[in-house]
Design a protein that fits this description.
Elements: H1 2-17, E1 22-35, H2 41-48, E2 52-63, E3 69-82, E4 85-100, H3 107-133, H4 146-173
Antiparallel strand pairs: 1-4, 2-3, 3-4
Helix pairs in contact: 3-4
């Protein structure tokens, strides 16, 4: 019977380690804006000229107060121009609430790579539906390399820190 008495003590530790590394608690549209400032005239222009679409994607993650959860937000802006005229401007902030069970050293990478990767297909669907419902062809975004975005962000942060330490060393030499 002694082995059975030890089982309840081991169960909580096992339950904690059995928790999934990423849990999506919720996902939602935080902000959505669609503007077609040159309509209806732009539709005639689009028959004769190809649109130029510029898409910017940004990822932000913030901890939720009094919680172990994080809010991860994909900010996506799409600007469509035809012959120097703005056809539409589409801005979407798509967010998710995530609970993470990962080591501290992996937290930032999970928040800025894996969480956005899980949210992106849903955000892409919203963008396609809204642009189509606005009278334009659906905006179909291809896959996004969140790993490269994260690595670029780390490199920029490293360069910024290097620049600050170089300035501090230069000031000390005077």
């Amino acid at each position: 019977m002694a082995p059975n008495a030890d089982t309840p003590e081991e169960a909580p530790a096992g339950a904690e380690s059995d928790a999934p590394p990423i849990t999506i608690n919720a996902q939602y549209i935080k902000d959505l804006s669609f503007e077609a400032p040159a309509s209806p005239g732009i539709f005639g222009t689009m028959r004769n000229a190809a649109p130029d679409i510029n898409v910017n994607i940004d990822v932000n993650a913030v901890p939720i107060a009094d919680s172990s959860a994080f809010e991860v937000v994909l900010d996506i802006t799409a600007n469509c121009t035809v012959e120097e005229t703005s056809a539409f401007i589409l801005e979407l902030s798509y967010a998710g609430l995530f609970s993470l069970n990962v080591p501290e050293e992996h937290l930032q990478a999970i928040l800025l790579i894996e969480c956005p990767r899980l949210l992106f297909p849903f955000a892409r669907n919203v963008l396609a539906d809204v642009s189509r419902d606005g009278g334009f062809p659906p905006l179909m975004l291809g896959p996004v390399d969140f790993v490269s975005m994260y690595q670029s962000q780390l490199q920029q942060a490293t360069e910024a820190e290097g620049g600050e330490s170089d300035e501090a060393e230069g000031e000390g030499d005077s």
